[in-house]
Amino acid sequence: MRKYGVADTTFSRVDMGSVAINTIKKEDPEAEIARYTVPGIKDLPVAAKRLIEEGCDGVITLGWVGKTMLDKYSYLATSIGLITVQILTSKHVIDVTVHEDESEDLEKLKEIAIDRATKHARNLVKLVRDGKNSLTPLAGKGLRQGYKDAGPID
Amino acid sequence: MRKYGVADTTFSRVDMGSVAINTIKKEDPEAEIARYTVPGIKDLPVAAKRLIEEGCDGVITLGWVGKTMLDKYSYLATSIGLITVQILTSKHVIDVTVHEDESEDLEKLKEIAIDRATKHARNLVKLVRDGKNSLTPLAGKGLRQGYKDAGPID
Amino acid sequence: MRKYGVADTTFSRVDMGSVAINTIKKEDPEAEIARYTVPGIKDLPVAAKRLIEEGCDGVITLGWVGKTMLDKYSYLATSIGLITVQILTSKHVIDVTVHEDESEDLEKLKEIAIDRATKHARNLVKLVRDGKNSLTPLAGKGLRQGYKDAGPID
Amino acid sequence: MRKYGVADTTFSRVDMGSVAINTIKKEDPEAEIARYTVPGIKDLPVAAKRLIEEGCDGVITLGWVGKTMLDKYSYLATSIGLITVQILTSKHVIDVTVHEDESEDLEKLKEIAIDRATKHARNLVKLVRDGKNSLTPLAGKGLRQGYKDAGPID
Amino acid sequence: MRKYGVADTTFSRVDMGSVAINTIKKEDPEAEIARYTVPGIKDLPVAAKRLIEEGCDGVITLGWVGKTMLDKYSYLATSIGLITVQILTSKHVIDVTVHEDESEDLEKLKEIAIDRATKHARNLVKLVRDGKNSLTPLAGKGLRQGYKDAGPID
């Protein structure tokens, strides 16, 4: 049976972990789900690694990033780490990140977070359950998570 | 028989995956081609790794990058990841990236994407099929993908 | 029995190592604690690696970063290194960093350092002793270390 | 018998690969030389890795970098990759890079490229053939490649 | 018997390698010392790796960095590489770096270089010979290399 990992943080101002779990349950009701909560984004790579080690076929991480240049450097280091985990395990770790400077409006920020977590949870299920061509009909379609789709050119 | 991998994204606004596949088919008609579609550029390194693990001799990745500094950090993390995949597998992963800020004109952007994907698909076939000296006659010639060649100095 | 590692620096202007040790002792009185002091932040990843190799179940690192762009690049390299240690060992290395430009007021800077070291030492104990769901009740709650909590949106 | 690897690109506007080969032949006439030409700098790390795998004792890579911030990010990713190849193989990969913004004058740029490739090809021969103390008489002497030496202070 | 590695460059304008060697000899007279001279900072990680492979218990690297943004990117790539060497070998590689823009005054720059190399050579001896608690009495004391100590807050 498939098993999904959900890694989230206490730093985040929106409970994206629950959003992801609910979406996965709806999309793949028979699957098992494991959750791992860490303080901040730099702790997500090891959480993803450990979730994979306990049998997850794929992981979604839910990060929240502050506004300063240092937050952005932490984002960069985390991104490199999450990619490294994927390379070493050959499993997908889909990275949902919300940046506090994406909107001044907190309600809008929450909407972005929920939309992004929902859509990427669906992406994870598709990739894990249906494989490498499950998203191919949408290739080049300009899809966006957190915002409305840009669409294909022409 | 040779096998090529093509990894593309749903974020892209141009279907560069199909462009690459058609080019590879024309250049090396007997080869097998596997496609892997992921949400965005940060998912490309693991897609390339998995394509290599299922037997691809080389991979072309087709990424589309937004305009913000964060998009550029994602580009940097992805580039490091794609290079790491190549180092660990000793296979070529040729990285086609189109940046949304390369042109304000969407038609121009599409032309850049198609030209770059086509030329780099040819490069991949040459390297995989004909080996390390296949491009040597063109060394130092100032070739460009997506733009017209700069040419050699003098 | 659990064993925690504490890695700190002579560069730091606050003895955060002692703060972390005292917090761990209070939170998990029976645990063993090993300390490793290095010159600066770029020496922390190997200290964390060695602490894990001598049996620590998790490590807290306590770094202090100067104000220049070069200090920030060192911070970035260190962050990547600390994440790599975690990925390779599958152990948590919780990274406490204080940046000299977080406050012009030295007393305030010291308060930030003590608060951050204390709260993250508690996080480490929770993760090491109580596992991946120990922080889940606080997921998405907008917790902060060094500052007051931002809180959840809504 | 010693074997040197030379990795260059079709992106470059100067045929630095031939410059490096001619220099190596002059400095170490009995050695074997293998050349590997790739499209751009991000393909150099895997070329260096493959040259080492086919028996090269050391490699020189010859990269050409454009003027935009994205080119510089590609330079950074490539540099990290080339260093990783060296760490994993314990072989020298000497990295010659020319940046298009080093001079507005194309003739000057070509001179820089030739001088840098020549001097670093000599450095490679010294390190591979004569070992870790071959350059020690020049330690701290402020040598430069592509420009005239800065010289030691005092 | 202990063995120390000293890796330096021909790019540097001060012979910091000799400074480090003399300091190590004074601090640990019976120890063996191996020196490795490379062209520039990006060659230091593999030099450190090779010194460790020939039996060094710890290494000090002595880098000199120019003033441009590209020099700083090379510094970043080198720093990541030196940290990676430490993580893979579990040995200390203490990184002394002098940036040309630390002072306009060449004499001052030389003083910085000598002071930094001397103090960090002592740090290396302490860590290698006396272990993880040898610097603990100085933890949080605001020590600086190349400048006068900042001291602890309060």
TrEMBL record, chains A, B, C, D, E:
A UniProt-annotated Pfam family: DMRL_synthase
Pathway entry: Cofactor biosynthesis; riboflavin biosynthesis; riboflavin from 2-hydroxy-3-oxobutyl phosphate and 5-amino-6-(D-ribitylamino)uracil: step 2/2
GO cellular component term, pick one: riboflavin synthase complex
EC number: 2.5.1.9
Alphabetical keyword list: Riboflavin biosynthesis, Transferase
Listed GO MF terms: riboflavin synthase activity
Transmembrane portions of the chain: none
Protein's UniProt name: Riboflavin synthase
Organism for this UniProt entry: Candidatus Aramenus sulfurataquae
